[in-house]
Amino acid sequence: MRAVLLTDLLSQALSEANPVPMQRQIYDVIRRAVLDHSLVAGQKLPSSRALAEELGVSRITVSLAYDRLIAENYLTASTGSGTFVAATTDLPLAGKSEASHARHTMALSQRGTMIGTLPGGLQQFHGAFVPGVPDASLFPFHLWRRLVSRHIGKGDLALAGYAADGGGLPALRQAVASYLKISRSVVCDPEQVIITAGTHQSIDLCARMLADPGDMAVIENPCHWAFPTVLAAAGMQIGAGVVDEGGLSLAASHVPRHARLVVTSPSHQYPTGVVMPLARRLELLQGARDHNLWVMEDDYDSEFRYDGTPLPSLQGLDSDARVIYVGTFSKAMFAGIRLGYLVVPAHLAQAFASASARIYRPGQLHIQAALADYIDEGHFAQHIRRMRVEYGERQQLLRTSLARALGDSITLSEARAGLHLFMRFNLPLDAAVLHARAVEEKLVLGVPRFIGARPDIDGRSVVLGFGGVPQDHIARGVNGLKRAVERTLGRR
Amino acid sequence: MRAVLLTDLLSQALSEANPVPMQRQIYDVIRRAVLDHSLVAGQKLPSSRALAEELGVSRITVSLAYDRLIAENYLTASTGSGTFVAATTDLPLAGKSEASHARHTMALSQRGTMIGTLPGGLQQFHGAFVPGVPDASLFPFHLWRRLVSRHIGKGDLALAGYAADGGGLPALRQAVASYLKISRSVVCDPEQVIITAGTHQSIDLCARMLADPGDMAVIENPCHWAFPTVLAAAGMQIGAGVVDEGGLSLAASHVPRHARLVVTSPSHQYPTGVVMPLARRLELLQGARDHNLWVMEDDYDSEFRYDGTPLPSLQGLDSDARVIYVGTFSKAMFAGIRLGYLVVPAHLAQAFASASARIYRPGQLHIQAALADYIDEGHFAQHIRRMRVEYGERQQLLRTSLARALGDSITLSEARAGLHLFMRFNLPLDAAVLHARAVEEKLVLGVPRFIGARPDIDGRSVVLGFGGVPQDHIARGVNGLKRAVERTLGRR
């Protein structure tokens, strides 16, 4: 390209209507021309005065563009002799066409490809019958806003930094420990509480600290998708744990020698809704001891029981420091808060906190401080009490409506607890077809995630969330569900 | 234990001064006695009336405690014959002494133990000369508070949920893409921007998606601790990349066949401060092509250059979709915000977003929405402009003060950029001793992290952060540093 062509190129590309400053436009055109070898190494450029005249812009504009290109080594300047395309630009990189891009495109790793095949969550967070979410419309955001605002500022600049202790803000760890002691019979010091960015991070931290790649995690079948997904993404193999009418039974499950971890939700098995009785809890702990397993206790919705005080946690029954308790604020507050916690055995507390600091570098202390206040000032307990009444009514209404609409053709989970019902059909029905029919009724049904064979419920069970469904929408939703069931069965 | 002993146990344990309600105190004592087998399976308990009289409490208090213990299967009740310890409690779990706990304590995995040995960060985030942090005291928190408050509420309830797209809030991805295009010559669509919870999560996501366990990452030597730590915690091997006066040289580095990824900070090498010239950038991209490597470009502090416009990114020079650009808001805003981003090649964008949704389940959309506004309304650019002036003055003052105090005995990094200087001693000196002496002067010096041998600078170089040091503290800090150096050299 001769110099006159550069001028042509610039004349065509530059535009006064373009909001990008003229100096930057000139820079961009020349830089691109150097990189795609339209301008070749050693080539002389017009003087800034000559180019400015050609383009009808001020000389300083061209000079500044040249200066930057020289500073960045695209051009070189030699006093007295002029400005040249730098010799170092003559490298084989530049000037690939779109077609050659495709040829060179690298692919994901095997791990990255595998992660794409793992179960994921729904992308809808309200309406009938999205599972796993509370009703954000009833959350006292005006109060939350005030608490968050209280801490964003220059009063305590340490809150603008990283968490000095990877376990989280001390005030929040203290508040969680006090809450758990009273409400969940969880026995712990605040140092054993590790604040995380939600249950996914909690699972990831446990997998990395307690298991090596290739170790197996025995997970309840069916389960919440987060466990197989996050554990597999951390290199663990996944085994199916047998769930019966007493919840997880280790005795009935295949536990190979490389099993290292068992995951359970004894308070309210997800998704089947079974509450594990005391005897089974003790048996599970004994089984974990026999097989030398860590126990992850997922207590995801234990705040919500509608027929009395919740059962005490497995952690509170553990006498040899093998239970890791997993809690979240996503159910008792709102999903997007993304704060959860682990309660780890005392001898692991320091290792977990410092690993969290290393691999996650936590911060967000304004939010952690607001949450500590929210608990300490009683708002947390108050909101739970209020929502317990509301969700209890929703569950009862959903039970009644479903019984009226579907009668003997279904069996519902029994526990008066949580934010969902597990509904099993007592007649042959293709759940995949039902899901499609439900979408036509503008309904979203939860899908149980299976790890191994469960012919008794696989394909004929769905999860119905009611946390995000106001009472006056429940009857309408059940009517839609009834129509979807009838059309699935070919009765209409 | 006979029944009369239970009464004794209760009499001793119960206290009206205890803020825990009496009914809960009774419950706790009996529950513990069942679990430690002080009360044995089948044993009969006194009637609620008899126990209430013995204890001097109301009968309803005892009845409620019994009811809960029965509901939770610790006790059983048989109409007419009384209340008994449940048979199911007769399992070998309970009643471990503290001593036996220790015998059964399980240990961390090999991976968990390894993580504890990886480099970590400082736990101090202000003062002379903590590296890597901006000055939070100059951040407009009043404005930030207003933007965050604007979004916490019921106006847009979707912000209270999880991120529907794992890549982050669309408005924020758009804002970042626009900013990067103008400021950093980064070529991308908003879909290629993946919002993360900071650089640690950015690195973790790249390791999982682009590398398999056992693959090697070639990392600049020295480097920021986050890279070897997070990549090793994700199963990668770490190799040392040679850093010379032009920054990373792949040609001079050992790149084995299982190398899959190279990490570089071309804009302002951390910590040495070298700015990679254009020729080396092109050579690096060619080398990456020859070795079939992904390139992670860490552009951690590129907002801060004090002698003209920043160099364009490596990503903008990349013509075959192998550069992953890593950015953060922790330097340009405040450390604890914990939001960062990746710019990934277009063909990876969907896979990265959906993997993020699966393994991290991101949320915190109130903060993401506030940040989008902060950028779109021009506050981000304005704060950077203001801080660029301030940090430029701090760096100049620190350079001048150091030259005056330590003269020819030191060499400083040359780039007018960033939030730190790299200081190398031109005489034999034990940096470990210097660090201890500096602490006595209430100074914190940054420690360069080495991956392989660097006898030219290892043990005789330190990192001096000035981002968090007001100008009127710089001279005082340098005086303290001078004393520390003199005492290290034994001159005082």
Automatic annotation (TrEMBL), chains A, B:
Where is the HTH gntR-type domain positioned along the sequence?
Answer: 20-88
Q: Does the keyword DNA-binding apply?
A: yes
Coiled coil where? none
Q: Name the Gene Ontology molecular function terms of this record.
A: DNA binding; DNA-binding transcription factor activity; pyridoxal phosphate binding
Query: What top-level branch of life does the organism fall under?
Result: Bacteria
Q: Which UniProt keywords apply?
A: DNA-binding, Pyridoxal phosphate, Transcription, Transcription regulation
Q: Which Gene3D superfamilies match?
A: Type I PLP-dependent aspartate aminotransferase-like (Major domain), Winged helix-like DNA-binding domain superfamily/Winged helix DNA-binding domain
- Pfam family membership, one: GntR
Family that this chain belongs to: In the C-terminal section; belongs to the class-I pyridoxal-phosphate-dependent aminotransferase family.
Full protein name? GntR family transcriptional regulator
Species assigned in the record = Cupriavidus plantarum
